[in-house]
Amino acid sequence: MSMRIEASREFGVWLSQIQKKEGPARTWALALLGYLRGLPESPTEETATLKRVRQARRHEVWRLAHRFDPDVAIRILCWFPDRDTAVVALVGGDKVRIGDVWYDSATPRAEAAVDQWQREHTEEQP
Within 10 Å of residue 55's Cβ, how many Cβ atoms? Predict the structure, then answer.
C-alpha cells in the first residue's frame, strides 16, 4: 500500500511550473514526491529525507529534502491527517538562494494550508 497524496492549490501551481522545465529542480521534486508516495504509513521518526519542521507551532508539519545539490534546494512541506494520507506540499520551494530563512515564511503558509484543508474536509462530512 502506498501513501495517498493530496495537494493544496498552491502546490499544484508550483509543481506545474516545475514540471515544465528540465533540470535538477524537476528531478528532485519528482523524486521527493516518489519517496513520499512510497511511505507505508505516516512517519513516526525522522529520516535524512523526512524531518519535522521545528518552526511549526499548531500542526505537525514535515519537510521532505534531498541530498546536497549546489544548484537547487527543493523542499516540500506536508502534513499527515491520518496514517495513509499526506497533504502535500502545502508549500514547495527552492530555498537555495535564501537558505533556512525560507522556513520563516513557508511554515506559516503551510499551517494555513492545513487549516484550509481541514475546513474543506470537515464541510464534506454529512
Answer: 16
Residue-wise pLDDT for 2-42, tens only, equals 899 988 888 888 889 989 988 998 999 999 999 999 999 99
Round to whole Å and give the CA distance between 49 and 66: 6
Cα 120 from Cα 110, distance rounded (Å)? 15
| Cell matching residue 112 | 494555513
Q: What is the pTM of this model?
A: 0.81
Q: Checking DSSP bridges between strand 85-94 and strand 61-65, what pairing results, if any?
A: unpaired
List, as own/partner pairs, every contact residues 19-23 make where C-beta atoms lie below 8 angstroms and the sequence separation is at least 24, other chains included.
Answer: 23/71, 23/72
Three cell numbers at 72? 537547487
